[in-house]
Amino acid sequence: MLVSRADQAQVEAAITTAEKRTSGEIVAVIAGSSASYLSVAPMVAALLALLVPWPLIYFTWWRVQDIYLLQLLVFLAVAAVLYWRPLRLTLVPNSIKRDRAHKRAMEQFVAQNLYTTRGHTGVLIFLSEAERYAEVVADQNINSKVPQANWQALVDRLTTRIGDGEAAEGLCEAITAAGELLAQHFPPGSANPDELPNHLIVIE
Q1: Which three-class secondary structure string do you get for 109-175?
Q2: What is the pTM of this model?
Q3: What is the pLDDT along the chain (204 residues), one digit of tens a residue?
Q4: Which CATH architecture has domain 5-36+93-203?
Q5: What angle (nearest 5°) sits at the alpha carbon of residue 150, between those of residues 145 and 155?
């Protein structure tokens, strides 16, 4: 897991502190993976199994039944090996992994009720560990005032800290930076209810 249970309290404190300076809401979500990619195993196994007969047909006198049996064994062996997720993930193109992670981020923006805040000032900081993906999703009122380049700079800094093995520190830093950006345009009002939970949300 990117962030230990002990560090989750630190993240919660960072969210609470950041939200005191703004009427916006910040939610942090870490997903273990954004998709299962289970279809990769049988697809690759089937492709390799289909290649098995050709050299045997042209260069050996094997019986058809023996070739078929070998095909079946190759399919089962390759599929079994590729059901190990780390290996399976290496075969998935980065573009597909980014697409799946982005889709999961959008789903979490809705699932965590960020779109329901009073002023539409919700911000999601989303991490997907298996895909090594990070994204900030901001509601419509924020997007009209905070340039996307600012969020991308936040994400770049966060991914650098994660790469250095400082995931908890990087996430707290990102939360603080998000709070500062929100405070510039959405200062706290006289009534500033904490509409959403401040704890780190960890999902599979």
Answers
A1: HHHCCHHHCCCCCEEEEEEECCCCEEEEEECHHHHCCCCHHHHHHHHHHHHHHHHCCCHHHHHHHHH
A2: 0.88
A3: 788 888 999 999 999 999 999 989 999 999 999 999 999 999 999 999 999 998 988 898 899 899 999 999 999 999 999 999 899 999 999 999 999 999 999 999 999 999 888 888 899 999 999 999 999 999 988 988 999 999 999 999 999 999 999 999 999 999 999 999 999 999 887 555 677 888 899 998
A4: Roll (3.10)
A5: 135
